[in-house]
Amino acid sequence: MTQSIKVSVDAVVFGYTPEDGVSVLLIKRKNEPFKHSWALPGGLVRNDEALEDAVRRELKEEAGIDVQFMEQLYSFGMPDRDPRNRVISIAYYALVRPRDFQLSAQTDAEDVEWYSVTEVPKLAFDHKNILDYAIKRLRGKLAYEPIGFELLDKKFPFSDLERLYQSLLLQQIDRRNFKKKIMAYGFLEELAEYIQRGAGRPARLYQFNKKKYFELKKNGYNFDLFL
Amino acid sequence: MTQSIKVSVDAVVFGYTPEDGVSVLLIKRKNEPFKHSWALPGGLVRNDEALEDAVRRELKEEAGIDVQFMEQLYSFGMPDRDPRNRVISIAYYALVRPRDFQLSAQTDAEDVEWYSVTEVPKLAFDHKNILDYAIKRLRGKLAYEPIGFELLDKKFPFSDLERLYQSLLLQQIDRRNFKKKIMAYGFLEELAEYIQRGAGRPARLYQFNKKKYFELKKNGYNFDLFL
DNA sequence: CCAAAAGTGTTGTTGTTACACCCATGC
DNA sequence: GCATGGGTGTAACAACAACACTTTTGG
Questions:
Q1: Looking at chain A, which residue has its C-alpha nearest residue B227?
Q2: Do A205 and A138 belong to one domain?
Q3: What is the value of pTM for the model shown?
């Protein structure tokens, strides 16, 4: 018998705001199966479409967003993960700044929403698995590459970075040691600008220098930011 | 138009012998395309078969081997990676002790052979890519998990482990520091047996204690073996 | 003037690296 | 007795963790 397996992609899109911590983008399905359930954005790959392109298209179609950083996560292929046919899903994860986008449900989605990773609803298919896997990967990645910068504004006070790491790694961070370590890598630029939010002393702004980062990386540098 | 993408799996099986270093299992294709070319073992996934099962089946069918350690590597899905149809491949990598098996070409394979990773021939499809990716992953993995033990005999002299790491990480290792570090983890057992190979003082044998290793791992231990 | 958040150095401890000589065997 | 590979400890240095008070603002 000839093969009849469908190929789909799913995306775990992480966002971060200092107020709400880390959140994940979910859509409410418009169609069966799992009609009206929350799910990760995703869908079938077209015949001549690269996998990454399929992810970007689906994110555009279903949620109205474009992502910058994206990486393949894992492929999920258990024969019974979709109740209709055999569908394997190649999962990706991505990081965005939620404020950069206006969410808008389209085509296959009834609704789109950011959910805090600590409060995700029941998800369709094996999407809970995929999400858990992505969170684990994100933590690991964060620990040795400074990808967290994708989740912050272009210019940000140091405390935002600190809070990001704390909420992702679920542990206290010593402010002084953290700053020492990050600054030692040299890919973070101190600006002459300040921001003030509510009470407290105004905070100096910083920005990530990608060029410097890629230089360091190319020359075989090992980032080792915790564990 | 309905989706018509095929799903295959490919395996990068690594072997290691102290004499030949790290090698990879290749098969010579019996059929078009790339007839008579060397390639990674693999093939189409059956409709009701889990991905891992497909890999194991293909390895059995094409080379006559069973693997113990196996992990998913990455999914390769460029639209033009197969000249016939769109085929995405979910690649796995595995580690074995070559001496445990008698290779035997079967069904789709004209021949099966171990090739030193430093001397691989031209490979079919994008298999060179896949192999390079696997080598990179193997190095990374080896650096923070003691998976290398899959590549050694049950009981082995310490120098075998040392040579394994040297040939994989391509760097000199200080014998004393290496031993100190490894022994400190506590998952390696010193035996009261000795082996002698050629000239030189007989070497004490060691064995890997998986139970202890999994205990440590479960209790959230971080292995940090170099870089 | 009190609460809130930002900013800033030093010290003790721990881990990492570098390094060289003796031992047991085969030939 | 010489060549081959196995076995072992210490000291200098670098990295990491712990730690608390001052500054600037809003209310």
A1: A222
A2: no
A3: 0.93
